[in-house]
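tmp note - E3 ubiquitin-protein ligase RNF166
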Amino acid sequence: MMAMFRSLVSASAQLRPQQPSASAAEGVESQFSCPICLEVYHKPVSIAGCSHTFCGECLQPCLQVTSPLCPLCRVPFDPKKVDRSSSVEKQLGSYKAPCRGCSKKVALVKMRSHIASCSKVQEQIANCPKFVPVVPTSQPIPSNIPNRSTFVCPFCGARNLDQQELLKHCMTSHRNDPNKVVCPVCSAMPWGDPSYKSSNFLQHLLHRHKFSYDTFVDYSIDEEAALQAALALSLAEN
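out:
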């Protein structure tokens, strides 16, 4: 009789839902984070071939090129076979994780909006350390280095756009603009011609600026050598 009672208690304990530990709850957010923006998925989409998932907006620049590669595994994929991930969306509504600032448990689907309004998170951002050299040095930090990280839209003057944001902005707002404009990315380079106007700026962005110059390029060499070095390094990494 006692053995039967113990077996019933054990069975009921196994059926009772387990509460995730604090570390497990924190891991839930990273499990449902976009590999590109590193935030919780927003309108997630999945690539059919490799099943990798990204925010819809994050994957958009990849869909604009002729032969797109998965940003995560670099496998070619058919842009027509990218679908909305309803299963991930459902999970975002089911799971909760602690806010990185106030530690309040928030549904993953609401995490982005919560973080944007969380005073603790905003305080953390404001208190982020400023740039200092990795190795202490007595040399002054140069102040005359041109900004090659953000750019101004040559069509409307929108500011503080990185290369990906510049492409997205122009595809959205200036897709049919016939004006010839100077490429702000090229003109920021040591070899750039600030007077040269591209007749098809969008095609120029898509084909000429597939990678970030800051990642691959040695600015002390000329353009052709820099391009070849960047391509060689990109191929080596793939």
